[in-house]
User: Which sequence fits this backbone?
């Protein structure tokens, strides 16, 4: 069973969200990273882009496939993990810490109520 | 329907199929065809023996203009260049002739190596970072480049410079018909507006043979956050600056001129190159060089995750046909002529075209319109262009392309190393005699 930290929120598309004040840090879960295999490239929309909940915000490419990334909460992209450009393997090795993908300034806190907690997420994987 | 060895269905199979769809006989399926056209009696002559047949076709082929043609000045996108015999010798090898990309591509190392060499030589010629294994033809390569820029810039506005030929534009518009893109003429925009565009398409040498200041246009479109896409004529790169020296982001070309016969308009091969940073949006196959587990050089398809057998509807393109054999022609051509040879061919084209154009310009009633051209130029004439071409034709010379526009009589002449000085002088003489 993949590790599912209980302090995070989850989307059905296998993204995790960590909320600090009005900033959401977003990445993909260990389950998603393990399913994709070795990640070779992460392509993310540009900074300051405004996104609605579940909009596509980028693509993640493994040796097997390219998958779309969907933003779990509405907001503006305020930071992109530039480390992933040269170290995409962080997503496999440490998806909840060094492997975070973007930070979003949340515009609608109600979005959080539609996300799953760790035990709910565990049930769907 | 008579039994044929090529139709595997038996009589009972056919009866069952007819019953299922609810018709009585095969003929019922053809009820829309007028009766008198159905199953005509073929009035064929007696069978010929092989030597008789060869004689007959030799006789027919002598009626073709090509058999007595002295020279041709047709161009406009496809060009008559010499193809060294090495090309034909190589493509006739059985290992290459069955050219379809195998479904387990790595099992055919020779096929992949050719693709890799093709990519490497085209990238060197264009001085661009990367090149894919080939597209259908020049126009589809350009259309793919435009769509690629839309994905990279997440912007669907495509700017077209007036250097781009109508033929290229026609392909772009049918290719992008369902792609939600907007095609805008560069002339019609205000450069000081706040709009951003995905790209600017430029053709140089342009549709009138003229060399365009691509670098300046690159700088202008970069200021508007767009990419510069340069469509070029590979032979010209032996003489003029390649896209890689002009700050071009994506460069395309029609590969026909480098080793591929004119045929009847195809099959040709599209050249598509780009800066390395855009490789993930580059459609088509890309072949990489690697080592196997014993450390031996080997070749493998790379970045396949962009392709449709993996990415389905999100693939970078739905192109899936291999242009492998045509790619081999191009590779053998470039390997045969080499950089020096290409430079000589390019210079020959340039000098003969300029000599020809200047001499025509001296003739009363004919005026050279193109400036700063490579090997193709436009002549404006007092006379109807058809009259000029018919006169040349009656002297076994194929004249220029008729590009008359409204009340302007215009002829586009292309000159290559295949137009020898004697034929050029004879053509000048004929044109002069028509106008004196």
Assistant:
């Amino acid at each position: 069973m993949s590790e599912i930290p209980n302090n995070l929120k989850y989307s059905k598309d296998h993204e995790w969200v960590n909320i600090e004040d009005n900033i959401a840090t977003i990445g993909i879960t260990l389950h998603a990273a393990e399913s994709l295999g070795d990640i070779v490239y992460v392509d993310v929309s540009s900074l300051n882009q405004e996104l609605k909940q579940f909009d596509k915000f980028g693509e993640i490419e493994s040796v097997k496939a390219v998958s779309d990334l969907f933003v779990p909460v509405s907001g503006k992209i305020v930071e992109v993990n530039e480390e992933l450009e040269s170290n995409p393997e962080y997503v496999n090795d440490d998806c909840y810490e060094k492997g975070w993908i973007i930070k979003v300034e949340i515009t609608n806190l109600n979005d959080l109520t539609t996300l799953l907690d760790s035990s709910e997420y565990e049930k769907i994987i | 329907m008579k039994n044929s060895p090529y139709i595997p269905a038996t009589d009972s199979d056919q009866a069952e199929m007819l019953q299922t769809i609810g018709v009585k006989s095969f003929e019922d399926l053809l009820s829309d065809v007028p009766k008198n056209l159905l199953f005509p009696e073929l009035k064929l002559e007696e069978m010929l023996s092989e030597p008789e047949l060869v004689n007959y076709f030799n006789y027919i082929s002598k009626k073709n203009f090509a058999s007595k043609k002295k020279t041709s000045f047709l161009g406009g996108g496809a060009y008559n260049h010499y193809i060294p015999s090495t090309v034909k010798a190589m493509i006739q090898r059985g290992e290459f002739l069955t050219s379809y990309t195998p479904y387990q591509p790595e099992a055919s190392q020779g096929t992949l190596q050719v693709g890799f060499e093709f990519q490497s030589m085209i990238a060197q010629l264009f001085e661009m970072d990367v090149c894919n294994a080939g597209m259908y033809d020049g126009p589809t390569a350009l259309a793919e480049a435009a769509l690629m820029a839309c994905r990279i810039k997440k912007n669907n506005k495509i700017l077209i410079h007036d250097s781009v030929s109508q033929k290229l534009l026609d392909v772009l518009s049918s290719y992008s018909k369902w792609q939600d893109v907007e095609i805008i003429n560069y002339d019609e925009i205000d450069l000081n507006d706040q709009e951003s565009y995905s790209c600017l398409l430029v053709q140089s040498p342009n549709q009138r043979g003229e060399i365009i200041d691509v670098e300046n246009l690159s700088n202008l479109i970069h200021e508007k956050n767009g990419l510069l896409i340069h469509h070029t004529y590979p032979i010209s790169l032996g003489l003029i600056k390649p896209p890689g020296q002009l700050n071009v982001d994506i460069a395309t070309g029609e590969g026909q001129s480098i080793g591929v016969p004119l045929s009847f308009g195809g099959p040709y091969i599209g050249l598509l190159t780009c800066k390395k940073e855009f490789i993930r949006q580059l459609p088509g196959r890309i072949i990489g060089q690697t080592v196997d587990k014993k450390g031996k050089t080997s070749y493998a398809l790379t970045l396949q995750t962009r392709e449709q057998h993996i990415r389905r509807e999100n693939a970078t393109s739905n192109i899936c046909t291999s242009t492998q054999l045509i790619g081999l022609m191009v590779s053998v051509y470039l390997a045969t002529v080499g950089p020096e040879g290409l430079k000589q061919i390019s210079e020959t084209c340039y000098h003969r075209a300029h000599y020809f154009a200047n001499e025509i310009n001296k003739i009363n009633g004919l005026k050279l319109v193109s400036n700063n051209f490579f090997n193709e130029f436009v002549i404006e004439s007092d006379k109807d262009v058809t009259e000029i071409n018919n006169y040349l034709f009656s002297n076994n010379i194929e004249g220029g392309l008729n590009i008359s526009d409204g009340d302007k009589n215009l002829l586009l002449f292309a000159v290559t190393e295949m137009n020898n000085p004697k034929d050029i002088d004879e053509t000048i003489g004929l044109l002069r005699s028509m106008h004196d």
About this structure: The domain at 67-80+338-435 of chain B is CATH 3.90.1150.10 (Aspartate Aminotransferase, domain 1). Chain B touches chain A at residues 154, 280, 305-306, 310-311, 314 (CB under 8 Å).
